[in-house]
Amino acid sequence: LIQPTARHPGIAGEPLGIDLPQGAVALAHAASSVMMDAGELLHLAAAAARVSWKEGLIGVEIGAYHGQTTAFLASVLQLLGRDVPVLSIDPFEQVDPDPLNPQGSYTEYLRSIQAAGAQKMCFPLVAFSQDAAAVVPHGIGLLIIDGWHEYSAVAQDLALYAPKVVPGGII
Q1: Cα–Cα distance between 50 and 44 in angstroms, integer?
Q2: Local structure of 7: helix, strand or coil
Q3: Farthest CA pair distance, the chain
Q4: Fewer Cβ atoms within 10 A, N terminus or C terminus of the chain?
């Protein structure tokens, strides 16, 4: 196991103090993109490692874009020996993009998930997050909010989804 710290390449900020499985750094560098760099991905991996994954908990990702982060998260969960479903909520081609909010691609999402061999872990919910909230169950262990990048939308996602995160879960 490694401890991601500010001394590791591509990791910014304070030491995380979370043990990650061997291979997580290489995975983060391979999955790095304009959407999330390797340091951000390693912080996400540390968050996933920190959750006490009890039976029935799920990961929820709001904003999937092309699925690279989803595939990375699934790979990290597999390295951790966790069989956790990851629900990705994204309207994909239904959104009108702008400079802060690029349009995702359902086809690219599926390709990313298939390339990671994570088809049995990752499940897309093609919808805007405010519309999907009613069907997303309580029991979220890890909530990733990276959908519409405006304050009001993030605040709304927090209001709708934070109550569904279990005690000890991570947003």
Answers
A1: 10
A2: coil
A3: 42
A4: N
pTM of the model: 0.88
Distance CA 41, CA 62 (A): 15
CA 20 to centroid of chain Cα atoms: 16
- pLDDT tens string for the chain (171 positions)? 344 443 344 444 443 577 888 889 999 999 988 888 999 999 999 999 999 999 999 999 999 999 999 999 999 999 999 999 999 999 999 888 888 888 889 999 999 999 999 999 999 999 999 999 999 999 999 999 989 888 999 999 999 999 999 999 999
User: Are 161 and 133 a contacting pair, CB within 8 Å?
Assistant: yes
Q: Is 58 exposed, middle or buried (0-12, 13-18, 19+ CB in 10 A)?
A: buried
The owner of tokens 């490692």 is 49
Torsion of CA 111, 116, 118, 119, to 10 degrees: 30
165/169 Cα distance (integer angstroms): 6
